[in-house]
Amino acid sequence: MNKKVIGSYSRRKFLHDLSIQAGMAALAMNGAALIYSCDDNKDKTNKDSVDKSNQKKLGVALVGLGGYSSGQLGPALRETQNCYLAGIVTGTPAKADTWKSRYDIPEKSIYNYENFDTIKDNPDIDIVYVVLPNAMHAEYVVRAAKAGKHVICEKPMAVTVDDCDRMIAACNAAGKMLSIGYRLHFEPYNKEMARLGQQKVYGNLKKMSAGFAFTAGDKNQWRLKKALSGGGPLMDVGIYCIQGMCYTTGMEPIAVRAQEGAKTDLERFSEVEQSLTWQFEFPGGLIADGKTSYAEGYNFLKAEAEKGSFELTSAYGYSGQQGRTTEGKMDFPRVNQQARQMDDFADAIRNKRQTQVPGEMGRRDVKLLQAIYKAMKTGERIAI
Length: 384
Ligand code: NAD
Hints:
Layout: H1 2-7, H2 9-29, H3 44-51, E1 58-63, H4 67-76, E2 83-89, H5 93-103, E3 110-111, E4 127-130, H6 137-146, E5 150-153, H7 161-174, E6 178-180, H8 188-198, E7 205-215, H9 226-229, H10 233-249, E8 255-260, E9 275-281, E10 287-293, E11 295-305, E12 308-314, E13 322-325, E14 328-329, H11 337-350, H12 359-378, E15 382-383
The site of nicotinamide-adenine-dinucleotide (NAD) has 18 residues, from helix 4.
């Protein structure tokens, strides 16, 4: 069954290559347009890296050495081919010492939040990667751009659309590129969902659903403080469902309804929602159901089309994706999503091409997050 599914791709892939190339060319000519890449799972990044192995690797500085930097980005930067970990920005001297020895980072490339702006004088740092609580993204992206660095910003891009605009404007003014840490655009199973949906391999989509939830432990963490997070599980993991719906349909929703779930832990969820459901309306009438929670566990992206269905029953993790179509199980190799994401950005900088996951896409998603919250609060259908 696997063989049949994979074996049948070659002609489609060829045709798809042509459409992707056309799409990328259009994007290069029109920087503001959002193209929903449904790449073909060929490892273009690695091919590019091999072809350009004589080019200098770009230096990345991570800002914020919390769970995601320590567990994923730092280790991934050992596997990247176009960039490497060149510096760190942290408020905790003990962390600086650990990282310095673990990653062989020179003293001159270790910053704290106060002297961060002097990073402008460090030629070893090409890219600043902001991995701080959501509400802090805007300040550090703007400061990084003013320091003349390209920037990757973690998701969600910011907590307001105005902040997104400031971030985009700062990067444009500095002539630097801005990308969002949307790692799943570089993950084969999610890329396959985008391909199947956008190329209408099973015909027009009839129905979609997506959900992502986990149990948020520590009740003192910033994720539960609205001033730092901007909201609850929707901001944190519901955003993956929004992304999944957009890249699978290749469209943006035009309206939304949303409902807040009941709070079973009023103390923990005094500032943010505990759970939330929403329904996006896409052009043509397609309805996509989304749900998210900090007090349950689920993780899926499903699409039903006229002639078949396709789904990921484990969709958004760092690994362990599982998927199937009407024809059988999907079977793709495991990749290091973060390494691919950062390598692609470094490649985009070196080749002066647009990133697949630009600030404009992060802004779009913050606009959608805000529309969902507005629909939740008003109980009304909100046009987007
Ligand atoms: P974390 O709590 O583990 O780390 C946050 C870091 O920010 C810590 O180093 C902390 O010291 C620092 N910090 C600075 N000022 C702070 C303040 N006022 N309050 C709290 N912390 C402060 O968080 P994390 O899980 O690493 O998340 C950081 C960002 O990365 C978030 O925007 C999150 O959405 C994003 N993230 C993305 C992914 C992904 O898969 N793309 C995964 C996890 C987190």
